[in-house]
Amino acid sequence: MINFETRLHASWLAGCALIITACAAPPPGTDPAATTGQSMPFASTYSPPPGAPTLLVGATILTGDGTRLDEAAVYFADGVVKAVGTDLAVPPGTRVVEARGKWITPGLIDVHSHMGNYPVPGAVAHQDGNELTSPNTAGVWAEHGVWPQDPAFNTARAGGVTVVQVLPGSGNLFGGRGVTLKNVPARTVQAMKFPGAPHSLKMACGENPKRVYGSRNIAPMSRMGNVAGQRAAFNAARQYLEKQERAAQGKGEAPPHDLNLETLAGVLKGEILVHNHCYRADEMALMIDLAREFGYHPGTFHHAVEAYKVADLLAEAGMCASVWADWWGFKLEAWDTTRENAAIVDAAGACAIIHSDSPVDIQRLNQETAKVMAAANRAGLPVTPEHAIRWLTSNPARSLGIAERTGTLTPGKMADVVVWNGNPFSVYAMAEQVYIDGALVYDRHDPDRQPKSDFELGMTGIGGGL
Amino acid sequence: MRRAWILLGVLAPAIAASPTAANAGTLAIVGGTVETASPAGRIPDGTVLIRDGRIVAVGAAIDIPAGAEIVDARGKIVTPGFMDPVSTIGLSEVSLEPSTVDTNVANDRFGASLDAADAFNPRSMLIPVNRIDGVTRAVVTPVGVAGGVIVGRSAAVNFGDAAAAVDRRHVAVHAMFGEAGAAQAGGARTAAFARLREALGDARDFGQNRRAWEQAGRRDYGLHHHDLEALQPVLRGELPLVVHVERASDIVALIELADEFGVRLIVTGGAEAWMVADRLAAAGVPVIINALANLPHSFESLGATLENAARLAAAGVTVAFGPDSTGGGSHNSRNLGQSAGVAVANGLPWQVGLAAITANPARIYGLEDVGQLQPGFVADVVIWDGDPLEVTSYPDAVYINGRAMPMESRHTLLRDRYLELLNLR
C-alpha cells in the first residue's frame, strides 16, 4: 500500500480533494454567454446520440424527486422522458425492455470530478487540473485541460454516471472555471459539454492554498491570507463590473478585458455558480459571510467534512454540501468527520450531495450513498432509498444549475436513465443499462455497448472487470 | 453499544450490561448465522462459545455451560473480526501532518531493521473508528525509506487491548519493486532489483560468516548489520518478504528471485497478478490486492480489473484484500467488507471473499490462531445486522479476545453532539 498512500498525498497536493460547489437554487439553464455579452467561446457541440423510443416496464422506479414507484414503467422518446407510471400507452414500434426485478433511477450526477484533467494513467504529462502559478487563476477553464480519452469516463458511465462536473483543483483560492459534461464518448470536450449549463467557479479555503503558496513564501500563507486574497479579488471584480456597467451607459471607458475578472464578475452577476472547496465548519461560515459581503450566492461547499456542524447555516443560506461518504483523516481539516454527515445536512434542510473526487469512487456512488443511508437509519435519522437517490441526482442537478433539464425522471427532462440489476444501494448492485438523452450508451450484457477510449485499444485488461 | 445491550437483554436480562462482565466467564453467542471462515463454512443457527478470550466451541449443537452469558444473535450474521493486512493504523494519524506520521523515513542507515512495532500507537484515534465497523486486527507496516527498497518489519496487532496490543513484533519484512522501487533506487527497475539481490545476497553471506565479520575478517556490506540481521529470518523462511509490485513481468521477476534465495514471497498491489496467476499458484505466493483497482492508474497497472480476485482465486492463489488506497487507505480499513463485496459481485465466491479479509490475511503471515471461528482461535467475533460484505450492514457488537468493545468513536460522539445541538434527535 506504499504506493497508494504516496499517490494519495500526491493527488491531494495536486488538488484533488479541494472543492466547493455552488448549490443554491441557481438560475437554471443560465446562458453563460450572457456573462460576456458575446457569443460564448468553446461552445458546446454536443448532440445527443441516436436513441429509439423506449419503454422500460415492471421495475421499481426511484424518480429522483423523492418518489418510489413499484411495478412501474418509464417511457422516453426524442431524448426526453415522456411518461412515468403504470399502464403507460406507447406508440406502436416502441422498443420495450422488460425490467421486472430491476430498479430504475435517473442518471447519476457527480459534481466533483477531475476526470480528463487528472486522468488515468496519472502520468506526469497528465497533471492538468491545477494551475499552481498564482493563487488567483479564475481565468483558466477546466475544459481546456480535459482529455476526452481518459478511460475513467467509461468506467464511470458503467457505474451509472451520466453527468459530471470537471473542476480545477483546489491549490488556488480561485482555481478557475469548472465545466459540466454529459458522459458520452467523444473526440473533443466541446462535444461533451452540457448544452446551456452554467459555468462554475472553483474556489478553495483552508489548508491547500495556504500550503501551496505559503511554502513559496508568498501569500496566502495562512487562513487570514486566504480570506484577504478572496476579498481583494472580489473587490477588484466589483470595480471591474462597475466600470463595465458605466461604460455601457456611455460613462467612461470599459476596462481592459481580463480573464480572471471576467470569471469573478460572472459570479457577482449570478451567472457563474460558486463551488467552494471547504472542510471546516468555521470556514464555511466565513465563506457564507464573504458571499454576503459581495452579494453573490455562496453556492456549494465541496468535501465539507464538517458540514454537519453548520447544517442549519447551510440551510439558511440555501446551499448544498457535497461530501464523501466516509473519507477522512488525510489532513487535519478532514479530521472531524462522521458517517452521517450528508444525512445530517439533509435533515437540517440543506441540500446534500455525495460526490467522488475520484475515478474509483465515481464508479460506486450508489454504494457510497448506501453507507450513509444505512448509518443514518441506525442513528435514528430515517432515510429511504427514494430520498437518498436525490443526493446523487436532483440535488447535484440543482447544484450545477441544470435541475430544469435533468436529475429527475420528470416528463420533458432529458432521458438520462439507469437500469440497475436490483436495489442500487447494495455492494452487489450493477448498472445494467445506462441511457443518456434516451440513447443506450452502456449495456452490461452487450460488449458492443461498452465503449473503449482510444487509450484502451490494444491493451490487456483495462476495465476488464466491468 | 446501546444496541448490543438490547440484544443481551433478550435472553439474559439479569446480566449486568458492562463489557468487563463479559470477560469474567463464558460467553455464548447463539442463534446467529455463523460464517466461520474456516473449513466448517456456514453454520445456520449456530453457537460460538468463548472462554478466556478464546473460542472453545463452534457449531449447531453446542452445550452451553450453566452460568454462561448468552448473547442472542438470532437474525444476525456472526463472523470473525476483519484484519487489515497492510495497515498504517497506529503509525499514521493525520496523513499530511508529518509529526503524526511514522511510516516514512529519510535516512541512509537502516531499512529492513526498522520496526513498525516500535512506533505503533495502540491508542490511535483510527482504532475505534475502524473497530466499531468490524476491524479487529492488523498487520502494521512501514511504508517507505527514502533511497531504499526495503522499508522495514511489520507487526501483528490487535485493537482490543492497548496495554497488550502487539501480538507479534515481527511478522514480515517489507519491500518495493516496480515504479515505486525504481524511483527510490535511482530511476530504474534494474537498480531496484539489484538492491533487492544485494540485500538478500549480503544477508546470506553475513549469516554464514557472522563470526568472521565480527572480527573484521569479512568484506563490507552495503547494508547496516542490523538490516542484515533482520533479513536472516527471511532467508530461513521464517518470515515472508512482502513486496509491493503491480506489473505482471515484475511479479515474475520477484517469483524467480524469491526462488533463488529460498524466500517466502507475498505480493501486495498485484494489479496485474491475474495475468500470471498460474505462476503465483505454482510458487505458492499469496497476493494482497486492492479489490477496487480496475483503472490504469499507472503504466504498471494497465491490466487492472475488478475480476483480479476472482481469477486469482480460481487459479488457486490465496488472496487477501488491503484497504483501498484511493479511498482513504487505512483510515478506512473499515471498508474492507465493501472491497470483498465488490470482488464477490465480480465473480469471487462469497465465502472466499470473507476469507480474504479474515482467515487469509492471518494465514499468509503465519498467524495460526487468528481469523477464523474455530476452537482454539482468538475470540475476535463480530455480530452484524446483515451481510457483512454489504455496504448497508454494520456491526451490532464487536468482541476482541472475547471482550465486548465499546461501540463508539470520535465520529459517533461528534455525530451525537451535533444531532443534539441541531435538535435533530
Offer a few descriptive terms.
heterodimer; A: 466 residues; alpha/beta; TIM Barrel; 9-stranded mixed β-sheet; 8-stranded mixed β-sheet; disordered N terminus; B: 425 residues; Urease, subunit C, domain 1; 23% strand; globular
Describe this protein's structure.
The longest helix of chain A has 26 residues, at 223-248. In chain A, strand 7 (108-113), helix 3 (152-158) and strand 8 (161-166) form a beta-alpha-beta unit. Chain A has one domain (2-47, 107-408): TIM Barrel (Alpha-Beta Barrel), CATH 3.20.20.140. Chain A has helices at residues 2-14, 33-36, 152-158, 207-214, 223-248, 259-268, 281-294, 311-316, 341-347, 365-378, 385-388, 394-400, and strands at residues 20-21, 54-62, 68-77, 80-85, 95-98, 103-106, 108-113, 161-166, 174-182, 200-204, 273-278, 300-303, 320-323, 351-354, 417-420, 431-436, 439-443. Chain A has 466 residues and is α/β, with parallel strands linked by helices. In chain A, strands 1, 7, 8, 9, 10, 11, 12, 13 and 14 form a nine-stranded mixed β-sheet that branches. In chain A, strands 2, 3, 4, 5, 6, 15, 16 and 17 form an eight-stranded mixed β-sheet that branches. Chain B folds into two domains: 2-80 and 379-409, Urease, subunit C, domain 1 (Roll), CATH 2.30.40.10; 82-364, Metal-dependent hydrolases (TIM Barrel, Alpha-Beta Barrel), CATH 3.20.20.140. Chain B is 31% helix and 23% strand. Chain B is globular. Chain B starts with a helix and ends with a helix.
